[in-house]
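To the team - manganese (II) ion complex, inputs and output below.
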Amino acid sequence: MIIVLKPKHTPKELTALLKEIKRLGYKPHVMRGVARTVIGAIGDERSHQSLDVLRAWSQVESVTPIQKRHKLVSREAHPQNSTINVRNVVIGGPELVVMAGPCSVESEKQIIETAHGVKSAGAKILRGGAFKPRTSPYEFQGLGEKGLKLLAKARKETGLPVITELLSEDHAELVAEYADILQIGARNAQNFQLLIAAAKTGRPVLLKRGLSMRIDEWLSAGEYVLSNDNAGLMFCERGIRTFETYTRNTLDLSAVPILKNETHCPVVIDPSQGTGRADLVVAMCKGAVAMGADALLVEVHPDPKTAKSDSAQQLSLGAFGQLMKELQPFAQAAGRL
Ligand code: PEP
Ligand code: MN
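Output:
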């Protein structure tokens, strides 16, 4: 870390500060400039506690960490892009991967029809919520284990790997038994015990951005997955809370190039939760691909107006087919297969 001192300090104060830096486990190097004294302190900065201790010293003007708190997710630790192989679908490689399916699994007919439909349009992974994080307890909560079984059935029929949300630590083993990828939802993005439980199943983890989460907080949440021996982490931007009301959330597409720069983990865009509007999904997907997103997570329902959750944002199978066609030139221009 770099510690910049205020212009006026006594030699005695400097000695006391150096002693404190050593006590915290760092090796200090003093650099005296004309106007300022700067101390370079070498040591492990992953815990930010010692930085805060030093910031509290009255002679200290600023403390700047060199190491990032999110060490394992950072590109510094792993310069090449990470790829995640899910039943031979590679996320984070040259191919743009589209994951599609209903917000919630509602019935056998609905999920099987959707799975066949999205597959024939070019989707590579089937999505569907079995345990749903609903704002109100009176709304449809998902089919639970029955929904997981239906997803497994759809996978068996179509060969598409499945992604579904893990809502609770208690369900980690159960959901991992059926799902190929565990989705951690926006409402649980900083539920660290859940992140650890998800990581420990060994299944790849798609970590949504929290409703009001800064990117540094999101990266640190991802660190909980990688630091628990699970290399299959991907980040999914799904819109954040802003003052805007035209859209359900504000989809932060700037997160794509920022994340691609900060981390080696694949980046996914969810334009469905991201806008809450089916009519905006195509444009957002094109933008996401142009920005360099590795994958898209799109809600598709055979009859969106009757959907038990998120009906306004789900695409019909026909609209999804059209999306996949329109995306092709954008994917090509972005160097994707
Ligand atoms: C979803 O994917 O249906 C969902 C509930 O996502 P989020 O956690 O992003 O709201
Ligand atoms: Mn949804």
